Amino acid sequence: MSVTDDAIEAIKQMIVDGELRPGDRLPREADLADRLGLSRNSLREAVRALSLIHVLDVRRGDGTYVTSLEPSLLMDAMGFVVDFHRDDTVLQFLEARRVIEPAVTEMAARCMPDADLEDLAKLLDSLGDRPTVDQLVENDLEFHRRIAGGCGNPVLASLLESLSGRTQRARTWRGITQEGVAERTLAEHRAILHALTARQPDVARAAATVHIAGVEQWLRQTLVE
């Protein structure tokens, strides 16, 4: 490991051990470098690296702090990596969604607040009878984002949001090329919403599986053709 890697590992261990907690300010650079037996340059590089993945927050003129370490914040780093996916890997993202999203939807059927379910119904109603492709995709993304947010697990919600956004281009292309996709998408969304409102976790899971699998199946056929 490089000296910078050693510094990253040392700071990480201080956080894991509870010596540094969310919101805590790091010791002065000179003091921390001396304590860890590192050069100040190596320590700066470590701090810079940890700030990029939102573990540390460098506040100019104030110091360096441990962030909240909330899952949604830390998962931004994964989103950065996922942004580098190629078009030929979009199927892998859809496969990942097909594994994760039904489970998240099942969880939401158990714990999503009634008020949030009512707002979900209003979201679908706001789309109208003849939405544009862009309106359909935007509504679709928001629909799934809200369900993920209602599952009670911020880690899963953040993970799913990272995956879901990366299939947006495929959804847009499907909306342009496949006839009747708006009606089908709305019908599948309403089936999911009905299961959520009825508090039927198994049915909600099945409806979400059918919905995601439909996009995946269409894309597979498109790539073959």
Automatic annotation (TrEMBL):
Keywords: DNA-binding, Transcription, Transcription regulation
UniProt entry tagged with the keyword Oxidoreductase: no
Entries under PROSITE patterns matching the protein: HTH_GNTR (PS50949)
Pfam family, one: FCD
Entry keyword annotation includes DNA-binding: yes
Domain HTH gntR-type as annotated: residue spans: 1-69
PANTHER family per record: TRANSCRIPTIONAL REGULATOR, GNTR FAMILY, UXU OPERON TRANSCRIPTIONAL REGULATOR
Protein known as: FadR family transcriptional regulator
